[in-house]
Amino acid sequence: MLPFSFFQLYMKNLALPHVADVEAIETRSELEALLLESKLVKRYLPAANSLLRDVYLGSDRPWTLSPPPDPEVPPEIRAQITQLIASEAQNAQMHGQTLDPDAGHFRFLSLMHGAIQAAKRNAADQAALATDKVHEILEMGRFYDAFAEFLVDLPLFPYAVIKGPVVRMVPKLTWEANQPNIQNRPQLFW
Fold first, then answer.
1. Cis peptide leading into 75, omega within 30 of 0?
2. pTM here?
3. Does 2 fall in a domain?
4. Dist. CA 133–CA 121, nearest whole Å
């Protein structure tokens, strides 16, 4: 029995409700059937491959790294806020002012809110830097090229495989004190 293929899935889910006539083509082997299927997909379903490529290899990245929704405020920042509140309370007492506990609590909450907003901005910046670094690694390792080939194979064959990553040593040129320096560095390839 032949594996269930993309073409069969398409015919079952999308095309069959609109079919008026069915033609069966007999082949001598599974390989011949796969080659015939490839030709039929190219002829009758070019949009399937085009859609996959547009979705996954368009100008936007098909993936993203998101920052945590509620990043923690670092303990040293919490300690600084507590110390600032204590220092402000001490200054107020030294100048003979009465302390309102609600005002101190409100001051603490407003400073914590500012610290939380700063932590969110920092997390978003770190996620953006990590996204750019991952994208750079994928581009340098030619992942997108391998993925494009995978997307071409996916509607044509019963299965498709992306092999990798493979780590290779690549020479990297750097300049130190106006002198060129070549070092081998590991790089991922697909």
1. no
2. 0.57
3. no
4. 18
CA of residue 127 relative to chain centroid, distance: 10
* pLDDT tens digits, one per residue of 114-142: 999 999 999 999 999 999 998 888 888 88
Residue 8 belongs to a domain: no
Q: Is residue 56 part of a domain?
A: yes
Residue range(s) defining the domain that contains residue 83: 45-189
**147-184 confidence digits (pLDDT tens):** 878 777 776 676 777 777 888 898 988 898 989 999 99
Nearest Cα to 153, choosing from 52, 56, 2? Answer: 52
Which residue's structure tokens are 């200054």? 91
DSSP-assigned letters across all residues of 6-58: HHHHHIIIIIGGG-S-------SSHHHHHHHHHHHHHHH-HHHHHHHHHHHSS
Q: Is 10 among the domain residues?
A: no
User: Mutual orientation of helices 30-44 and 46-56 as an angle, nearest 10°?
Assistant: 80
